Amino acid sequence: MLTTFIKSFKELTTKELYDLLQLRSEVFVVEQDCVYQDLDGKDEKALHILGYSHNRLVAYTRIFKPLDYFKEASIGRVVVKESDRKFKYGYKIMQASIKAIKSHYNVTEIRISAQTYLKRFYNNLDFKEVGEEYLEDGIPHINMIKS
């Protein structure tokens, strides 16, 4: 079972911030072998969706209101701990993020910059590809929109 919490940057405890940065680094830097600047100055504008199982942070996203990242509301830094992916926490954290955008920002149109190999995962959440594939930090990505 995944329990989710929504917090602004200021509401995050030091432990929560450490845990989310550690999870992002574990997956995006170490597992995906990608050297990039994760600390991009945007966390302070985001709402953070934290997903816990057995008191461990296992899933995370950050969401933005329209115009804070893209023209549309957006979801980014979607991450699930490798050992917990078999529990479908990716879908659960995304569903919680979509719901949070609707309840906090009162909009339904969402743009994401998705790693191309996850297109089918996002298609299952009603995101559709827009535009051409591009490289971001050396990894193929595609823009996707959910209306």
Explained architecture:
- This protein is an alpha+beta fold and 147 residues long.
- The protein has a single domain, classed as Aminopeptidase, CATH 3.40.630.30.
- The protein contains 3 helices and 7 strands, in the order E-H-E-E-E-H-E-H-E-E.
- The longest helix is centred in the first third of the chain and has 18 residues.
- The radius of gyration is 14 Å and the shape is globular.
- The mean pLDDT is 94.
- CATH fold naming: Aminopeptidase
Helix vs. strand class: alpha+beta
Ends distance: 28 Å
Kindly report the spatial arrangement of strands forming the biggest sheet: 1-2-3-4-5-7-6
Helix-strand sequence: EHEEEHEHEE
Short description:
With 147 residues, the protein is α+β, with helices and mostly antiparallel strands. Helices cover 27% and strands 36% of the residues.
Q: What labels would you give this structure?
A:
single chain; 147 residues; alpha+beta; Aminopeptidase; seven-stranded mixed beta sheet; 36% strand
